[in-house]
Design brief:
This protein is an all-alpha fold and 131 residues long. Among the domains are: 33 residues, no CATH class; 57 residues. It contains four helices and no strands. Helix 3 packs antiparallel against helix 4. The two termini are 49 Å apart.
């Protein structure tokens, strides 16, 4: 009986540690989902397709309900101020219209800052996921 050679010098070289896949993650799909993934993967192995999709996809984290409530409130406030500005201009009340317009600009600036913070948080989360 022939002995099995463990350290075959002519065989495949071992992979470096950072290139080894060692952590399987079980995922279940419905038959329709599996067919769709298989079709999208084409000639690529399904596990490779799923791995590449998971590593390179952009997944946005949901915004908290509290933050959405605040943003919705600011949007509603901005809409109300905009309506008041329009009515003030129509009535010829230019000073009130100008002050309301300034308030509207303030609301818009706050909304803009909130959007920037949300985007910054998403970018930070994305960079953490890529690490």
């Amino acid at each position: 009986m022939a002995k099995h050679v463990i350290n075959n010098p002519g065989g495949r070289k071992p992979l470096p540690e950072e290139e080894k896949y060692g952590k399987p993650i079980p995922v279940r799909f419905t038959p329709k989902q599996f067919i769709r993934i298989k079709r999208k993967a084409g000639e690529m192995p399904i596990s490779t397709y799923i791995r590449e999709g998971a590593l390179h996809a952009i997944v946005r984290q949901p915004v908290s309900k509290e933050l959405m409530k605040e943003i919705r409130g600011l949007n509603n406030l901005g809409t109300n101020i905009n309506t008041l500005v329009k009515l003030a201009y129509q009535a010829g009340l230019m000073t009130i219209a100008d002050k309301a317009n300034e308030a509207l600009d303030g609301v818009n600036a706050i909304l803009h800052q909130a959007r920037l913070k949300i985007k910054e948080k998403e970018d930070n989360d994305e960079s953490k996921n890529q690490s």
